[in-house]
Structures are given as C-alpha cells and as structure tokens.
Amino acid sequence: MATPARFDIVAIGNAIVDVIARADDALIEAEAMVKGSMRLIDAAEATRLYDAMGPGVEMSGGSAANTLAGMAALGRRCAFIGQVADDQLGQVFTHDLTSLGVAFGTPPLAGGDPTARCLIFVTPDGQRTMNTFLGASQNLGLASLDPELIGDADILYLEGYLWNADASRAAMADAIRLARAAGRRVAFTLSDSFVIAAHRDDFDRMIAAREIDILFANEAELLELAQEQDFDAALARVAGGVPLLVVTRSEKGAVAVTGGERTTVAAEPIDHVVDTTGAGDLFAAGFLSGLAEGRALADCLTMGAVCAREIIAQVGPRAQTDLRTLVAARLG
After folding, report:
1. How far apart (Å, rounded) are the C-alpha atoms in residues 71 and 307?
2. Which of 65, 38, 176 lies closest to 120 in space, CA to CA?
3. Complete DSSP assignment for 266-307
C-alpha cells in the first residue's frame, strides 16, 4: 500500500508561453490552418506567424500547466515537471506557475532552443487555432525527472502533446514506471487527434498493459483512438481498457465510465463563448480536484464543467475568477 503523498498531483507537460490574438476566418483560411486544431511549427514559421498576428496577450500556458494552475486555485497540492530555457520567457513561465503555489524546480537549459511558445488565433466564434513551437520543452529528458517527486504525488498526470518528441516520450515512459513502483495512479490526457494518429500503437499498448488509470479525451480524440464513427461504440471500446475514462463533449456535456458504469453531466450554461483555449485543461483541473476530495463522479464532472465554463468566458487559459467560490456555490 502506498504511503500518504505530499502532493495531490505531479504533472509532466510542455512549458509554453501563449501568445493569443483575435483573428477572422479569412486569416485562418489564408494561412491554411485547420480551425480549432493545433499544429507544430518550427522557429522560422513561429517568427513569420507572429508578424502576421494582430495585437496579442502573452501569458504562460501549456496544457498540463494550465490544469495545475486550475487545481492550485481550487486548493490542491500540485507540482510540475517541464523544461524551459534560461531566457526571459523561461523566467516568465517559472514565475507565473510558482506564484500560483505550484512547485516547479526543473533546472532551465542554458543554450540551445529558446523557451516554447504557442501562437493562438481566436476567431469570432471563440474557436482557438494553435501553432506551437516546442523549443526547449521538447528537450525534457530523463535527467529532468525527479523520482522522489513522482513518488510523492497521488497522481502522475501526463500531457499527450509531449509524446511527439523522442526525449520527452522516453522521460514520460520512465515516469510511468516510477509512479507504478511507488503505488501511484497514472492519468493521461490525449491532447489532440493528430497526437493519437501519430502514436496510436503506443497508446493501444499502454492501455492494454494497464499503464493508464485515468484517461482524458474529448469526443474527437475518443473517436480517433477507437477508430470508430459512433460515440457510444467508441466509448465502449476504450472504456474496457482503462479503470476510469473521462470524455468531454463541448455543449453536450461530459461523461465518465468506470467499472462499466456511465455517469453523464450536462454542460454548464453560458451566455457567450469568448475563447475556448484551455477548456479541456480546466475541465481536467476541476475533475481531478473533485477526485482528490473523494467526491462522487457526478460531482467531479460538474466541477470540471464549472471550471471549463469559466475559462471559455474569458481570454486565455488561466482562470481570472475565483474557481473555489464558484464550485462551492454550485455544489456546496
């Protein structure tokens, strides 16, 4: 039996600074971007697209880091493992995360790639189209892992985006081994359909080997992973391989499946969607916080929905409202 942990969660993810700007559909089409998706770009493309952006807002982001920021706001004990460079954006990212109460001690890299950044175009319908230069974040390797930290958290949370780089993929695989050896649970978020298309064999193997205890996906990612066109068929196929499957469905709400039992909640009402950046990240923050509090799955899903609603009503992936008060008003 695992000993009590110092942290509720330790996450491994991209350490990214987001640049968010408004854009019309014409620009998305002219740049041949797929609205609502994420693509990886190189340094030259990052510079070119940055020049094409209108006035923007810069803030720390990264999927797993966004989730931890939300969990910290909800009072959970959080730690992060991610790679920044020894540069200005790296200092900004580190300050932003630690100021929220998240433990972050991964040493920055000196020389080499700069700190990662994500250029996010937000269209009038609130959809965000992301263009990510991974920079230093993809250089996270085995040396960046803190085995003691991984063993001292109830849940190890892994960001699927990092599965694309060889070094970070090896580090995450080793982190799973360390968490398992310490008797901890492993949560994995699939991040994007393109990640699944590139690494489906790995994910199928991990699920078959029971390396994942909690799997997060949105509806499109679930269909891609299951290679199904019907949601219920995809849900049944994937749920059989993981102890807890959590799927978000935008305006159709969210569902969790464990032990063959399905729990569903509706989406929280919202008057106007401003920016969907970070919606899935904050949903995971609410859900995992509820799980850490020992709440029923319906309450965990509702907490996720409340946090997701708040984040899509603002610009950017870090909550500007008091999430704990909002959750308490909704659930008590």
Report:
1. 10
2. 38
3. PPPP-S-----TTHHHHHHHHHHHHHHTT--HHHHHHHHHHH
| Single-letter amino acid code for the residue at 101 | G
Three-state secondary structure of 40-94 = ECCHHHHHHHHHHCCCEEEEEECHHHHHHHHHHHCCCCEEEECCCECCHHHHHHH
How many other CB atoms are found less than 10 A from the CB of residue 320? 11
For residue 18, give the nearest of 56, 69, 71, 47 by alpha carbon. Answer: 56
**Pseudo-torsion of CA 21, 22, 27, 31, nearest 10°?**
30
For the domain covering 7-14+62-85+138-331, report its CATH number: 3.40.1190.20
**Residue 309 buriedness (CB in 10 A; 0-12 / 13-18 / 19+):** buried
DSSP state, 182?
Answer: T
The tokens describing 105, both together, are 């001690």
CB 198 within 8 A of CB 164: yes
pLDDT values of the chain reduced to their tens digit, one per residue, 332 residues: 578 899 999 999 999 988 889 999 999 999 999 998 889 899 889 889 988 888 888 888 899 999 999 999 999 999 999 999 999 889 989 999 999 999 999 999 988 888 999 999 999 998 889 899 989 998 999 999 999 999 999 999 999 999 988 999 999 999 999 999 999 999 999 999 999 999 999 999 999 999 999 999 999 999 999 999 999 999 999 999 999 999 999 999 999 999 999 999 999 999 888 888 889 999 999 999 999 999 999 999 999 999 999 999 997 788 889 999 999 999 97
Q: Sign of torsion, CA 192 194 200 202? A: negative
Query: Nearest 5°: phi and psi at 155?
Result: -130, 135
DSSP string spanning 97-143?
HHTTT-EE-PPPBPSSSPPEEEEEEE-TTS-EEEEEE-GGGGG--GG
